[in-house]
Every structure is written in C-alpha cells, then in structure tokens.
Amino acid sequence: MSDLSFVEIATDGACKGNPGPGGWGALIRYGDKELEISGGEKETTNNRMELRAAIEALNILKRPCRVKLSIDSTYVKDGITKWVFNWQKNGWRTAARKPVKNADLWQDLVEAVKRHEIEWHWVKGHNGDADNERADILASDAAIKMALS
User: Residue 12 catalytic?
Assistant: First the structure.
C-alpha cells in the first residue's frame, strides 16, 4: 500500500463552437476539503480543454499523490493510457506518420502524470455523476466567460 495522500479529481472541458471559446474545469477533493479550479482560452477546441483540465488539476497538487481521476473524455483517457507510448516512440507521430494533434498538451500531460500514481476512470458525461456535472459547470462557465471577453 502506498503512503501517498489520496486525492479524487473530476475534470471536464467545454467549447462554445469547436473551435471557439473554450473552458476547462476541475473539482479536486482531498479528505473533506474541496477545491474548484477553472480557466479558458479565446480560440481552442474541446479536446484541448479536456487535456488542459487534467493537466491543471494534476499540476496544482503540491506533492506526489495517489489520484483517482474521473473524466468523460475517452480521447484523454485512451490517449494517456494507450496511445501516448507509441506516439513518444514515433517522435510524436501517429501510426500513419502524421503529427499527433495537440502534441504540446500531450507532452504537458505526460509530465504532469509522472509524479503521481493515477487511476483513470471514464464516466459518461451529462449522465448524473455529481462530480462530473460540477466540473462541466466550471468548464462551461469558463467558456462563456471567454466568449464574452
């Protein structure tokens, strides 16, 4: 059993248009403490915001932790648990030898996960998972803020 602190994270990304103004959000729970974080970009995609949410949530942790990270993006979950290893071996190219989309954020996510023991959990979005719904609201609100700024 690891002596690392246990943290639960729920993340989500949103985009108003794809591409368009986007936002990301994360709910971070440590014991009985909760932290909500969010941010956005003026011109982005939903996949970039899904990636950014996971990166920012992991990077805010001050020390290595055991993390249960819930996410409704199969793109991010499958990318970090399956595809990224071959992308790295292939110089950030796909099996078809094309550049990996969002390689900059994939590289940031690879760095962010290194310090932690992470269990990736996919949850169906907009399906009643309370933590996912909170992350979705944070992401959507951030995307709206970007659209209005």
Answer: yes
